[in-house]
Write the C-alpha cells for this entry.
Amino acid sequence: HVLVIPKEHVPSLNQMTDPAVAGRVLAFARDIAIREGIAERGYRVVINTNAEAGQTVFHLHAHVLGGREQGWPPG
C-alpha cells in the first residue's frame, strides 16, 4: 500500500481543476506499480472523495494497492 500525494493542495477530486496534476498522480501510481513489481499481475488505484467515501485527509491522494488478489466489491 503506497500513497501518491501531489505537492499542489487539492482538497478532493471534486476540486481537481488542473489535468496536469491529475495526470502526474496517475503516472506516478503506474510508476510505483512497475517499480514494486505488481504492474503485470495487477493493482488498484483508489481515490476516496469526501467523508462518506472514506476520505479522512482532505488533501488529494491516491492509494496504490497490489501484491495480492483484489476482490470485488472492495473492502
In short: DSSP finds one helix and three strands in the chain. The mean pLDDT is 95. Helices lie at 19-35.
